[in-house]
Amino acid sequence: MEREDSQTYWNDLYASLGSPPAGDGEWLARYGELLDGSSEKPILDLGCGRGADTLYLLEKGYPVLSCDISPAALESLRIRDSRARTVCLDMREGLPFLPGEFRLVIADLSLHY
User: Fold this and answer.
1) What is the pTM (predicted TM-score) of this model?
2) Exposure of 52 by Cβ count < 10 A (0-12 exposed, 13-18 middle, 19+ buried)?
3) SS3 assignment, position 12
4) Cβ contact 53:25 at 8 Å
5) What is the helix (H) or strand (E) element at residue 44, kind and residue range?
6) What 3-state class would DSSP assign to 46?
7) Which of 11, 41, 57, 62 has a C-alpha 20 to 30 A away from that of 105?
8) Is the dihedral of CA 75, 81, 82, 88 positive or negative?
9) CA-to-CA distance for 68 and 8, rounded, in angstroms?
């Protein structure tokens, strides 16, 4: 699927879904030791979609950079929480980040979609 087709598909899907369910990022709680590392580096949330994991992490005080192919999903996330830092990208084209730039990467559900 071409990037434009993918963006259209995901934009339409996210527009139809609305806000993520409350507590959707709670699965991350079991990884507290990894999340609580002493690093000041942000967590990279790849394929963040509607931002359930990002919102959970922001509520816990973690710095996060959220990425998705859908500009509509990223805008929705920024509206829900103004602290959200976002980058629109297609992971199939590679990642524009430097090695070691993030303390850890979350790609919840995004790699197989």
Assistant:
1) 0.84
2) buried
3) helix
4) yes
5) strand 43-46
6) strand
7) 11
8) negative
9) 13
Tokens coding 83? 């602290």
Q: What is the chain's pLDDT, residue by residue, as a tens digit (113 residues)?
A: 666 688 888 888 888 876 666 667 888 989 888 888 767 899 999 999 989 999 999 999 999 999 999 999 999 999 999 999 999 999 989 999 999 999 999 998 887 66
| Assigned token pair, 101 | 């730039």
Q: How many CA atoms lie within 13 A of 83 on its CB side?
A: 12
Gyration radius of the chain over CA positions: 14
Which residue, 13, 32, 34, 14, is CA-closest to 78? 14
Contact 49, 110 (CB under 8 A): yes
Work out the end-to-end distance of the chain between its first and last CA atoms, rounded to an integer number of angstroms: 12
Q: Give the residue among 102, 106, 68 at the shortest CA–CA distance from 87.
A: 68
Q: Is 109 left (phi over 0), alpha (psi -120 to 50) or beta?
A: left
| Strand partners of residue 45 | 66, 106
